[in-house]
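Appendix C: a fully annotated inverse folding record. The material below is reproduced so that readers can follow the format used throughout the book. The structure is listed first as tokens, followed by the designed sequence.
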């Protein structure tokens, strides 16, 4: 009794777990799987969590998600979707200057509901050509123009019902197309076009200019699907925002100039090891010549590397060397850093300069996105997580009954032979190319219009569990030592996953 009385409760509140500093300042690199965050206090709902962030000095987004500049991840369709959903996409540079600029332009010109570059055929094409298009894209109506291209005179429209019962598939479209058309003039507003479509009861509404040339198409199915995108990432002129990748090579100065002329919002200097004379010189040059365009520099993993790029003018840092799903850099080059450690240290340094850091690579699920934010990142850049979606480039194919899409590292032999990957890894002119990435496939993830809200709802729940309503408050707690971490043994990791079941149904990708 007397002994018990001596054990006095400390007046200090007991804090379980450890601060980030004590976790990361150890002699071993840490990845997302190596730790957990301890829960905080909840007095709000997940929908009260605001995921607004900054992806560069001047660009704000409503969700902390960026799609990687990889040729199996981001072209215009992905970038449009990312921007509509509140993030941003970075168009890869394994393309000619003109091709890449066209993708940028498509994003900047995108208007919700209009199809700016529909598939078009000529009257000399046959029903068999329509069949081939339907099989590939599942389209139901194709406009027919004089020479089979956009901006040529509109002659008719072929819908499924025009060709469904026709036995002779080699008939030219001129003999089956509908010529009694309802059209709308160029410049029509979305609301007006919607109204015309509704009244006409047609499936497709061609938009034509004064000379009767086709400039865009609107479809009833899109109209039905058409939703508002309150989170969309837009510039001052209400156009969607887009990023594009470039190398540091002198011959890419023309690329940069063209991308800027076409309206790119964020230039990403794409390099596997960004701490170089080339990148520092390019950054200084860009900031002098085009101060209005934000530049994301990288990739870096140490404070020294990051600070040098910030001093040269970087508006954001891209962090990661080796954590990517397709990446073999760490094994091949013996160089790199465990991703959570890399993000923690670089973010801590960049905070002093008010520059956001982007956690690039190794994000496999909702938990990893959250952990990247929790160790200081302002957003996560994802390749494999978004690849395999309907909006990623490439066609679906089947292997053993599973629907897949191709996904490859930009330093895989295949991608390097395409050009862009080789620039990223500085091996463009070299005869012997050492691959730092592999080429493979990922499963069909469906459309990002469903997948991204699902991922973000997961992140909102995760932040709620930690007791934070927004990313800046999470970062404040991180640096104050109030956000508590706990290392995770291998046994703890095994226990944290599904175990002891004979069988179970896997959750949606991203929650595993
Ligand atoms: P993921 O999200 O884990 O698939 O990683 C995507 C990131 O991997 C990209 O944003 C790049 O930083 C990086 N990356 C892309 N291609 C390669 C490669 O071939 N080798 C190593 N890293 C790559």
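Designed amino acids, in order:
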């Amino acid at each position: 009794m007397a002994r018990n009385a001596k054990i006095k409760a400390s007046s200090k509140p007991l804090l379980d777990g450890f601060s980030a500093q004590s976790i990361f300042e150890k002699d071993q690199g840490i990845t997302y799987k190596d730790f957990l965050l301890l829960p905080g206090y909840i007095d709000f709902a997940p929908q009260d969590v605001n995921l607004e962030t900054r992806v560069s000095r001047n660009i704000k987004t409503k969700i902390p998600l960026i799609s990687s500049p990889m040729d199996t991840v981001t072209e215009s369709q992905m970038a449009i979707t990312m921007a509509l959903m509140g993030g941003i996409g970075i168009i890869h540079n394994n393309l000619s200057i003109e091709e890449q600029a066209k993708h940028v332009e498509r994003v900047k010109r995108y208007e919700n509901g209009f199809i700016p570059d529909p598939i078009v055929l000529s009257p000399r094409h046959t029903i068999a050509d329509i069949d081939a298009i339907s099989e590939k894209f599942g389209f139901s109506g194709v406009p027919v123009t004089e020479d089979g291209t956009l901006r040529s005179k509109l002659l008719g429209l072929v819908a499924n019902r025009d060709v469904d019962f026709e036995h002779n598939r080699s008939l030219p479209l001129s003999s089956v197309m509908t010529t009694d058309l309802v059209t709308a003039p160029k410049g029509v507003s979305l609301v007006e076009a919607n109204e015309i479509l509704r009244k006409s009861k047609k499936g497709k509404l061609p938009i034509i200019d004064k000379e009767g040339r086709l400039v865009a198409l609107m479809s009833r199915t899109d109209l039905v699907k058409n939703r508002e995108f309150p989170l969309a990432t837009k510039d001052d002129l209400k156009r969607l925002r887009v990023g594009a990748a470039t190398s540091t090579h002198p011959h890419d100065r023309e690329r940069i100039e063209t991308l800027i002329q076409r309206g790119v919002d964020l230039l990403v200097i794409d390099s596997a090891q960004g701490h170089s004379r080339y990148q520092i010189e390019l950054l200084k040059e860009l900031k002098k010549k085009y101060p209005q365009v934000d530049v994301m520099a990288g990739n870096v993993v140490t404070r020294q590397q990051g600070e040098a790029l910030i001093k040269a003018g970087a508006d954001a840092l891209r962090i990661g060397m080796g954590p990517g799903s397709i990446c073999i850099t760490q094994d091949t080059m013996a160089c790199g850093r465990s991703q959570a450690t890399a993000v923690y240290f670089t973010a801590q340094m960049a905070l002093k300069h008010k520059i956001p850091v982007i956690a690039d690579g190794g994000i496999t699920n909702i938990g990893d996105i959250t952990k990247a934010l929790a160790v200081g990142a302002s957003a996560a850049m994802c390749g494999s997580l978004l690849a395999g979606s309907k909006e990623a480039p490439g066609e679906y194919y089947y292997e053993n009954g599973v629907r897949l899409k191709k996904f490859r590292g930009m330093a895989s032999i295949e991608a390097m032979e395409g050009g862009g990957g080789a620039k990223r890894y500085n091996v463009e002119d070299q005869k012997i190319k050492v691959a730092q990435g592999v080429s493979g496939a990922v499963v069909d993830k469906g459309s990002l219009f469903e997948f991204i809200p699902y991922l973000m709802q997961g992140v909102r729940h995760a932040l709620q569990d930690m007791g934070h309503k927004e990313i800046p408050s999470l970062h404040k707690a991180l640096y104050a030592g109030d956000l508590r971490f706990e290392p995770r043994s291998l046994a703890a990791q095994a226990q944290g996953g599904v175990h002891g079941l004979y069988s179970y149904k896997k959750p949606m990708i991203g929650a595993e």
